[in-house]
Write a structure and sequence with these properties.
Length: about 150
């Protein structure tokens, strides 16, 4: 359970930072003249939390095959896109401008998801490398003590 919470917290903070960046880019491209108040600052936190729900719910402690992992990641991505689209747009189908905005939001969610996955991978890789180095040092010290 502790591992699940740590992984979900990592995902939350990484995705929240990336959501801020995506909101900035999408805003500057799609509506550069629009200005917002302080209430806008809470939205990345809400979206980060909502994006963690599928990650938290679908977490498993058993070792998955590559195919199972890819299926799980795909389902998580679809669920996150659906949640964000539902929250942002509700039931609006709209005209061409809204469709372009929906596509931009969907692409931003995909970019954030893969960006967060890449950052998590790099952090895990760094941790694994550090643990391997420590294990080698421990083995060398055990061998020299004999």
């Amino acid at each position: 359970m502790k591992e699940r919470l740590i992984e979900t917290a990592k995902y939350f903070f990484i995705s929240t930072a990336l959501i801020n960046a995506a909101m900035f880019v999408c805003g500057m491209v799609l509506a550069p003249e629009q200005r917002f108040g302080y209430e806008l600052l809470v939205y990345p936190i809400i979206y980060g939390f909502l994006g963690c729900i599928p990650v938290f719910v679908m977490f498993t402690s058993k070792e998955l095959t590559v195919k199972q992992t890819m299926i799980r990641e795909s389902v998580q991505l679809v669920l996150i896109i659906a949640i964000v689209e539902m929250i942002v747009f509700g039931g609006q189908m709209g005209g061409t401008e809204l469709i372009v905005t929906r596509i931009a939001v969907g692409l931003a969610v995909v970019a954030i998801y893969f960006g967060a996955a890449l950052i998590r991978y790099k952090l895990d890789e760094k941790t694994a490398r550090k643990m391997t180095d420590q294990l080698k040092a421990f083995q060398e010290s055990a061998e020299s003590a004999e």
